[in-house]
Amino acid sequence: MSANIVFIGLGNMGLPMAQNLVKAGFPVSGHDLVKASVDKLVEAGGKTEADSMAAVAKADVVITMLPASRHVESLYLGEAGVLASAKPGALLIDCSTIAPEAARKVAAAAKARGFEMLDAPVSGGTNGATAGTLTFMVGGSKEAFEAAQPYLQKMGRAIYHAGDSGSGQTVKVCNNMLLGILMIGTSEAIRLGMANGMDPKVLSEIMSKSSGRNWTLEVYNPCPGVMDTAPASKGYAGGFGVDLMLKDLGLAVENALATNCAIPLGSTARNLYDIHSMNGAGKLDFSSIFNMLGKAK
Ligand code: NAD
Question: Could you give the residue ranges of the DSSP H alpha helices within 227-263?
Fold first, then answer.
């Protein structure tokens, strides 16, 4: 018999992820504070219940995709939360991007109640969530990692066991800090070339075959018109928002303070995205940082 899944947090990422589980034939009960999102899952063949914790009580697997640490902590640790409601033996998987410390705290509380819990943040954005091609970076026991495979494989393509609880989040924080820095560096380089009269397409093509090559240059170019499929060529709409990047860089800075680690470029990147957000770009794709570094032509 197919495992009963409860999916909580049907936002930009969670809805397509839950839809892929429905497509794979799992009975999925979806829950969100926004009714319209729940309706979309039900239209796609999922179900729901008025009381999300009554659904959790019947679930074999609980998957969450929430905005930030505080949402995850309150949903799992609250008096009538997931840990208080789930049935013995349920597998708990949190896919949100949160602080490694928060992930370890919730996993320890889950363990104290006899549950296996994984932190399983993702990379790949909303396109990857829709296509079922996300990368999962997973922290928790090897046994729980194996038990989660049937579900994670329906939502992602590359699924990595990073280590113990919290290590999935640590990898995610490191990856997104590097991504944020690379996007600013790539924007600077293209702006400098343009200031010298270079065609940004020619410049990007040559750098893509040279030692400056990186994902933001080759796949997600920040300069409008260089790459038709990139958010830069669509008015910086959709994609990965400045405010979400700002949140992730904030996690990196918090973590660096707690671990006494120097991240001079990571903290500078956080400050630049913060100024960009304060200037009103919070909802635009993070590649719009390109606009902060020069005048639109
Ligand atoms: P989102 O804001 O679109 O979705 C979050 C959803 O959680 C919302 O629909 C909200 O109503 C719901 N929610 C909040 N508290 C809830 C509660 N107590 N019960 C039920 N529902 C609740 O965010 P998103 O873009 O889907 O991102 C989710 C997570 O994934 C974040 O941690 C984000 O950093 C991470 N992430 C996002 C992307 C991306 O490209 N958007 C990529 C990788 C990782």
Answer: 242-259
* 172 among known catalytic residues: yes
> What is the distance of C-alpha 194 from the center of its chain?
32
Could you give the percent of the chain with pLDDT greater than 90?
95
Indicate the top mutation candidate among 13, 51, 127, 133 to test ligand 1's pocket, ranked by most ligand atoms within 8 A of CB. Answer: 13
194 CA from centroid of ligand 1 (Å) = 37
Mean pLDDT of 45-74: 97
Within a domain: residue 297?
Answer: no
38 contacts 10 by C-beta, under 8 angstroms:
yes
- Of the residues 140, 164, 188, the one at which a domain ends: 164
Query: How far does residue 37's CA lie from ligand 1's centre (Å)?
Result: 12
Tokens of 119: 């932190």
pLDDT tens per residue, range 131-143: 999 999 999 999 9
Q: Which of 297, 293, 276, 296 shows the shortest CA–CA distance to 191?
A: 293
Are 132 and 68 part of one and the same domain?
yes
Bridge partners for 117 per DSSP: 92
On whether the CB atoms of residues 8 and 63 are closer than 8 A, the answer is yes
Whether residue 296 has pLDDT greater than 80:
no
Distance between CA 102 and CA 68 in Å, rounded?
A: 10
ipTM of the complex: 0.99
Catalytic residue among 58, 172, 209, 297: 172
Query: Closest by alpha carbon to 120, among 144, 104, 134, 139?
Result: 139
Instruction: List, for residues 33-43, the tens digit of each pLDDT value.
Output: 999 999 999 99
Examine the domain organization and report whether 79 and 193 are in the same domain: no
Task: Enumerate helices (H) and strands (E) in the chain, giving the number of each.
Answer: 14, 8
